[in-house]
Predict the 3D structure of the following.
Amino acid sequence: MSYSPFSTGFNAVSNNVCAFISMRQTEPACFNAQFDEATQSCALFNGFEHVKNLVMLTKQLL
């Protein structure tokens, strides 16, 4: 089962920026972040499940 993100941050120019955004998220806690290079967005998840998109290349950050 895949879950939708609880937050999506834009202007994340790299997976490092996405990781920084996810580490700063405290309430609700972020356990998984997904960086999308095409849209330069960072989706935050409060579990280890995520939206799987086989068309776009995304990077998972745990």
